[in-house]
Amino acid sequence: MTSRDLYSLHCKGFTFEIRDGTLFVGPASRLTDEIKSLIKQHKQEIIELLKGPIDEKEAKQWLIGDTKAIMIDWPQGALIASQGTPLFTAYRQVSDAVDAAFDGTREQFLAALQRYETALMRIKEAFQKGQRICQQ
To answer: Where are the domains of the chain?
Structure first.
């Protein structure tokens, strides 16, 4: 199991958390037998990878990869239209958390990256639905 494999699972929508030395991977409903077997077989390696520091190059690659995937069909003006709203505030907070996570572990960085993706997707969805996301 490599950090690239870990990121690949992240890209498939899986989240990782270590609590009291126990690895939690979710969402459980999406865990196929194949993925469960992979995780079970490499559990200790995954824990070690998650606990390990993320280097700047790796973090930048992951961030760029996620941002590119989100921006493929990004509606022009969506982020600007959200300025001054709770959606934009949440985006800024998670963006700052991603910046701070550059100095943390892979687990911390992946968690921050997941929140960043979610914030961007909420802005995108609201904009595409025509919801008022600008404060007037």
So the answer is: 1-51, 54-136
DSSP string covering 19-75: ETTEEEEE-GGG--HHHHHHHHHTHHHHHHHHHSBPPHHHHHHHHHHHHHHHHTTPP
pTM of the model: 0.85
Q: Are strands 22-26 and 15-19 parallel, antiparallel or unpaired?
A: antiparallel
d(CA 57, CA 23): 25
pLDDT in tens, 85-102: 899 999 999 999 999 999
Q: What is the pLDDT of residues 38-79, one digit of tens each?
A: 999 999 999 999 999 999 999 999 999 988 988 888 888 898
The token pair that represents 26 in the structure block: 């979710």
Separation CA 112–CA 60 (nearest Å): 13
Burial bucket for residue 135 (CB in 10 Å: 0-12, 13-18, 19+):
exposed
Instruction: State the Cα–Cα distance between residues 35 and 14, nearest whole angstrom.
Output: 10
45 or 81, higher pLDDT: 45
**Cα separation, 16 vs 29, whole angstroms:** 14
